[in-house]
Amino acid sequence: MNDVAVIGGGAWGTALANAAGSAGRPVTLWLRDAEAAARLQQTRENARYLPGVKLNERIRATADATALSRAGIVLMVTPAQTLRGVLSDLRPSLSPEASIVLCAKGIERGSDAFMSAVAADILGPDTAVAVLSGPSFAADVARGLPTAVTLAAGDAALAARLAASLSGPALRLYHTDDVRGVEIGGAGKNVLAIASGIVAGRGLGESARAALIARAFAELMRFARSLGGRPETLMGLSGLGDLVLTASSPQSRNFAFGERLGRGASPEQASGGKLAEGAFTAAALVALARRSGVEMPVAEAVAAVVSGQVSIEAVIAALLARPLRGEAE
Is the whole-model pTM more than 0.85? Predict the structure, then answer.
């Protein structure tokens, strides 16, 4: 597990590469664009995504896929909707003994598959696959600010080994074997953070936003339980911790996207050319919840607004008009 490869040269990929380098690991940072890789290797700074942050000296940036074969740990840091394609392209270059750590938080559109299922489909069920999720902004991790996240693998011993291998001076990894619970927390919080942003952008007040976050978390717990996720996982870093972070800070792309929606922007205008993973995940999350017989009114409201089917005023009125019920229901 000594050598680490990071697939994806965006902000989060660069940040995780820096963290792995700080943990003492030789790191290959792979970018699809050869020119961008050469520039990053030369300047030692990802000026587009993390200006002012220098690459750790142990990182080698490259577009040469053959360099990935040496890695015992491969961090897949590409958007959820591109994971299938990127894994398919790079599969011949990856060591069959490598552990694949999925760092995207989402559900694949069309298949409604979680990232671990996508990886198993491409790499085979015997490949060692783990999921990394938790409250973390790329800029904080890249600069070496204290951060704690969760790593999940179906094999508890593998999860513990990977967590130990990737933890460093400032990035602390907790481990669990509850892969589904961690995936649900990571994907669901993006959708619910959009709702929080809408409330903020609409000027509905902090009391309303606190109530929404609490009720949104309750529906996320119901959904996770229906698919086998454990409540204690959702109460941890990858669930509640990540929701608190992304539902309360403009640094979160999902919160910022929702905030612009709340101020009257269209979904296209609100994206601002930046990926808000929750906008892609919303419909898939709702579809999975309906098949499981779980009510997720906040997630349904977000999906309706993002798709342009319903106005924000209409979904606010519908949520406030829902029948009163016991808080534990």
Answer: yes
